[in-house]
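The pair is set out directly below:
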Amino acid sequence: MPSPTDTMLVHLPALLDGLKTVAANEPLYTDIEAVLKALLHDKAAPDEDAAVLCSMLLAPLPTPAWRHDVADHFSALRTSPAMPVKLLAQLVMGLNKAMGIKTDHHLVPALLMALALGGVPSSLPYHNHNHTREVVVLAAILGIAQNTMTPFADAQTVLCELLIAACVHDFAHDGEGNRDMGKHLPMRLEAMALNKAAPYLKAAGLPDASWKRITTIVLATDVSKSSADFVSPAEWLRRAYAGDGATIQNCPPEMAPLFSDPVLTLQAALLEDADLCTSAGMPYTFARRMTALIAEETRVLTPTPQTLIGFVDHICRGAYVTDAARKIFDDNIKRLRAEAEQENAETIYMWS
């Protein structure tokens, strides 16, 4: 790892001290304390796959083999013996060369705390620390690309909020969908993640204004809907991003800020693309594996080409949201669908 004195890790002692203000009976308190201490005392060499992945991601944008190389390193990191939080911190600090977030920026302590939350190990097949790491990496790359195309007025703050949201968007996931007692409950998982992350982020000094923005960004990642809820929060996000304000009167209050704040809408759209592109932006072989893992976790979906086609058509709506995602991932989503269609419909996807 880089020296703590010249990176965001300089804030670790203060974060551990501030953790004392969080009630010890808060969910995962012991795990988060252990993760922060392990990061503080880590003396191991940087992970080679993470270092190569950073170099690759910071190179001029993609060659035809880029997605395959990224997927290969994602797969290697999934089997790395290194602490999940170390890998996550190493990747974010490596990518920070392009993000330009200064160590003394006021959101950096909260970002470091968010990295600790995102680095808590989870045994879930899909919504675990591996998925979080991949979403954070893709959110960083999309944020860098978007800022290059159309610079943000305050890029450091925008990118910090985006990465914090990416770190906590599936925090403490319970492996169940957005249902309760058999009834669809919109944003259940997202709200739970926010509620459990809130004491830690606030102990790290996250301002209320940023917390409100992160709340909206995370809630907008919910792609679920039911026969009673015809439009998912993610679909409301797509409408706001497209400038479709005609139906705002039917919008859930949690999504209303997206229709009045273009920067917030872009941040939410970048996270939505990053979340989906862990499959939709990757080669078919990797997308097959992600389909197998989500099927194992949900126990409802089947690990088949039809599930992947349904993901492309109904969750991704056949397209990426942001200009950055379209630039980086091009027409990969169409290739995924075509390859799934060509596969025998009875094929069973496996992780290995």
About this structure: The chain has one domain: 4-277. The chain has a mean pLDDT of 92.
